[in-house]
Amino acid sequence: MKGFNFIRRMGKLQNNAETPAESGVKDVHEEGKPRRRWRYWIMASAGLALLTVIGINAEKKYVTANTESFYRVMLHDKEIGTIRDAEELSVLFEKKRQEYQTKYPGALMVVQTEGITTKPDRAYKPTVESEATLKKLDGMLKAYAVGVQLMVNGKAVGIVKDQETANAVLQGVKQHYVPETEGSQGAQLKRTAASGAAASTASKSSPELVESAKIREQVTIEPTKADPNKVLNIEEAVKVLTEGKDAPLLYEVQEGDTISAIAKRFGITQADIFRNNPEVKELTLQIGDELQLTVPQPELTVVTVEKVSEQIVTEPEVVVRTSDLLEAGKSKVVRPGQTGLKEMQYRLTKENGTVVREEWLGQTVLKASLPEVVYRGTKVAMQASGTKAASQASGTKVIGQASGMFAWPVSGATISSSFGERWGRAHKGVDLVSGNRSIKASDAGTVSFAGVQSGYGNVVIINHNNGYETYYGHLSSISVSQGQRLEQGAKIGVMGSTGRSTGTHLHFEIRKNGSALNPMKYLK
């Protein structure tokens, strides 16, 4: 500034200086004197010009020294403030992201910075309001979560943090239906509640082996942006995918179904079923009937194939021997039988824990039963007469006389549905399938019924005259008639699918005094 003052003073001196004419200086030619005043004036002007240049340069240096760089912060091309350093924005963004990440630890948070830019600028002693600008911007910053969207057959069902979490969720859904697994296929499992309790005749069940567990639907995973409140953790996502939402379901009644079993399977009350199906009665429920249900329907269907084994107490055979020491018509147990133990192996196919297919794989005798020995008297009083007495006395076997042992009614059979209230159904017998469709009497006896009965279709009932009866249902044709006496192994008909049947098979029952028994306790 001193330079400028000097220039101003020199300018004033210049402006006040008199020209030669004004100062009364005479022409040197006229008076013959040197032009000293002119030279002084020229030198003063030159000095003044020099000082002006020096002053301007000094001012430029001063302005340059006091010119500062800064940044204008723009939001969609509209200025919202100024900051000293662009790095201040990066610091603010990271600070804000950390705040959101702390608030939503289960999501991967990203600060929304779209539209926020900086424009570099310079000015002489500018007023830069970094603190105010950053505070204003802090209040404007929002964040969103980046994650992955689980898609089931093209339908969005939930958002989770990342691919790793999505994989864990899908594994968790599988584990929901095969709990306590040790990881890989074939690992030992504890029988799930969904499988139902073993039949009352089973004394012990061994762990299941999972052969496979697959999700039926097509599941894809897509990157997405989301509200962090909608990002699910593993437990929440598994719950969403396994519980589902209530929706209408048309259910077809299967063999062995009861209203109570259906209600238990779907987690609803019997009252709900009767309310939606007022025409349905428990005792008149038919295979193939359709029930209108409102039940939770999960987004995913987990199909598991499991091996199951259980131990069943087997009943002893009854060995009948004749004795002429006992009167005809009388019998005596000379050696009580002892029960045995065998292990049954099954392969179960389940959908979300509900058995949809059962396959009997075989059995292993762990302890053989001890037969019961019974003496039947043949001694005939002198006055006794008649064909029956004579045959008994001679030891001739009477046609239709039961042996007390039950043989398989079809050769090469496998079980498609076992006995008892288990796996969501109540079943009074066993369903047998075989390539050989010829059906034989399991033990000797008398045909008490041969014809059509509701539910059984074509059925043969054999009375074994010892308190036991056997039922052979769903036959395509019948080869015997009522009252006919049969030997064990005699052909009685051909396997079919008549009556309330879900396919070609034999429904086989053993009853004692009217009560259904597990045939597997008796079949050898």
Give a quick rundown of the structure.
The chain has 524 residues and is of the alpha+beta class.
Verbal overview:
The chain is an alpha+beta fold and 524 residues long. The protein folds into four domains: 2-65; 68-140, no CATH class; 162-298, LysM domain (Membrane-bound Lytic Murein Transglycosylase D, Chain A); 399-524, Glucose Permease (Domain IIA) (Distorted Sandwich), CATH 2.70.70. The chain contains ten helices and 31 strands. The strands form seven sheets. Strands 20, 23, 24, 25, 26, 27, 28, 29, 30 and 31 form a ten-stranded antiparallel β-sheet that branches. Strands 7, 8, 9, 14, 17 and 18 form a six-stranded antiparallel β-sheet that branches. Strands 3, 5, 6, 10 and 11 form a five-stranded mixed β-sheet that branches. The protein is rod-shaped and about 185 Å long. The N and C termini lie far apart (122 Å). Mean pLDDT is 81; it is low at 1-8, 10-32, 181-205 and 383-395.
Q: How is the secondary structure organized here?
A:
Blueprint (H helix, E strand, L loop, with lengths): L1 H15 L11 H4 L4 H30 L1 E9 L2 E6 L3 H17 L4 E5 L3 E9 L5 H11 L1 E11 L2 E6 L2 H15 L10 E2 L12 E4 L2 E8 L3 E8 L4 E2 L1 H10 L1 E8 L6 H8 L3 H7 L13 E8 L4 E13 L3 E10 L3 E5 L4 E12 L2 E14 L4 E8 L7 H8 L19 E4 L2 E3 L2 E3 L2 E4 L4 E3 L4 E9 L3 E7 L4 E11 L6 E2 L4 E5 L10 E7 L2 E3 L7
Parallel strand pairs: 6-11, 15-19
Antiparallel strand pairs: 1-2, 1-4, 3-5, 5-6, 5-10, 7-9, 8-14, 9-14, 12-13, 14-17, 16-19, 17-18, 20-23, 21-22, 23-30, 24-29, 25-26, 25-28, 26-27, 27-29, 27-30, 30-31
Helix pairs in contact: 1-3, 6-7
